[in-house]
């Protein structure tokens, strides 16, 4: 890898943008592929797989050997709402390898005692997200049931292209949410990306079971992004 290529890769990593460095093992030539770039043939399928899995390695494609070096941002989970579901979801997500941040301006809920060892922001989401913006490698979970808290980060998550957006509430609640988002300028295509009711439909009843359903849905969304025709059915956990 030459110096210019290394600088480009490092700049993309700092900006939390995914790239795959494709090296032709026949002649040593390499190129940087950004997520969403079009790559033809078998190599294109291999590159898409690398973006989904984050795994690097040698592939045989189009009669040649390539080394794909995947550089993906570390996926994280941002939870809006320091509620019972969040208390179960946060440690589960961190065990699974997803750093968690919880945002809730209600200091009675957002306390160190209730969330030991978790990155906690007892502030309004708009203030936190100005400093720590959402991106395509952020999963967004909204569980406050309060539009004053949820709506701003929800619209921000849609605009940022978060890999997962799940919102707690019934279909009636979601219909009202859709009306508000439309008034905020969200498109029908964006709104369709929201998983509401939140979580895979596993018949979850308790906060811990809902947390399992949400985490599974978020992981699936991350690992299947870009697979046409494989969008999961919306769950009905909560």
From TrEMBL:
Q: What is this protein called?
A: XdhC family protein
Recorded superkingdom: Bacteria
Q: Where is the XdhC Rossmann domain?
A: 77-217
Q: Please name the InterPro entries in this protein's record.
A: MoCofactor_Util/Proc, XdhC_Rossmann_dom
